[in-house]
Automatic annotation (TrEMBL):
Main location: membrane
Membrane topology: Multi-pass membrane protein
Positions with biased composition (Polar residues): 1-11
Superkingdom: Bacteria
Gene Ontology MF terms: hexosyltransferase activity
UniProt protein name: Integral membrane protein
Family stated for the protein in its record: Belongs to the glycosyltransferase 87 family.
Keyword GTP-binding: no
Region annotation Disordered: where it falls in the sequence: 1-29, 477-499
Transmembrane segments: 47-67, 149-169, 181-212, 218-245, 257-277, 314-336, 342-361, 382-402, 417-440
Compartment annotation: Cell membrane
Keywords assigned by UniProt, alphabetized: Cell membrane, Membrane, Transferase, Transmembrane, Transmembrane helix
Amino acid sequence: MPSAETTQSSVREPDPVRPTKDDEVARSGSELIGGPLGRRALLGTSWWTPVRVIALVAIGMFALGLVQKAPCYNGDWFFGASSQYTHACYSDIPHLYQGRGFADGLVPYFDRLSGDMEYLEYPVLTGVFMEVASWLTPGSGSIQHQEQWYWMVNAGMLMACAAVIAVCVTRTHARRPWDGLLVALAPAFALTATINWDLLAVALTAAAMLMWSRGRPLAFGVLLGLATAAKLYPVLLLGALLVLCWRAGKWRDFGKALGGTAVAWVVVNGPVMLLAFDGWSKFYTFSQERGVDFGSFWLIMAQNSSDPLSTETVNTLATLLMLLCCVGVAALTLTAPRRPRFAQLAFLIVAAFILTNKVYSPQYVLWLVPLAALARPKWRDFLIWQACEVAYFLGIWMYLAYTTSGDAHKGLPTDGYHWAIGVHLLGTLYLCAMIVRDILMPERDPVRRAGDDDPSGGVLDGAPDVFVLGAAAHPPKHAAHFDGPQVEWGGPEPDRRSL
């Protein structure tokens, strides 16, 4: 009988996954940079570890996105309404420097703005980000010069967020570090990164998911609370965790995550809520009062109807649709043959919010890119979805060029823009369908086919089920439970009960 030392030494960590070995698109694309990944690069024996490579690629792609905005930086933001759309280089950042009082030194949420907006319509942590950037912006020179500086300062801060996102995604799936290249090379990520301030919330959400994958639910909750203080969508991840922890019986860990989220959100929002409630609440009232807007199927309905639905009716219907999607995701989670992975549910729930919402700004794709890389790390499907998002990115700017160019009618007419919206919707639905298929057929899931259970799941990874609806679920399988040359399993059989 082998000794304990022999058993311990015979169990070793499985090798990292090589995407150029398992993914045909990745293998073909690698020919542009010297061919498939070798074992020495895979093991990180040189300075060029996956984290460093992917972080540098992400920064390089971000820089290309800045270059794409050059026509606007050099004049289109200031001298022409339609040219910033025909060059597809529009950004909210320079326009809101003056439009939201930063040029005049007004304090967000406390000082009233001139005009109809009254107060800054962004969540508190995003407002802090914007304010810090205004402090770093030189106050001398023309307003155009100041707006250029403000955009550049924000771009530098957002570049740091982009690097954080790439690093966190790379480190979340320990055996699949190269999946982070999906984020770093995503064309829609580079094109939309500096349209608005969404990357702050995306970076905090990616960091939160990394903490959860490391089995630190309280740190996850704190980071998710900060992310929700910067943008509303991250709180949806708690819904995904709720049903996963229900199925696995991990209520204590869910409680820590929920408590951390609530405390972090209150710490950020509480002081502003108490001292400047009208300014603090502007984000929430604006979201309710805002009518049907760009990018949603509600806009297609409104522009093709002689009697469009009222904003209140759309709010109600959109909420009901979102709740229906949540019920569907919960049912899928509790009846699937194996418990879905956290990243899969996170993508589905955020995608449902995007698809049912009454507005889809082009930068909202940033919310989904890291989740897509973790949920469905398959280059073909990822690039199909990204192509649809790039088509929509071009479509909205060409439509706005058409509506602002007067009689010249430069750009894309309304019917063409509706097709662009349809492409975006179909691309997102396609990726959702692939993820649902992976959940229902775990053997098709790229992550599980490589031998993992739920590497982003933290305490859920390899945990047995305690509550399942319908037929008994398959037992969870961790990489260390798979037979094969990479592992010699020397310990007792894992608990394979499905209760």
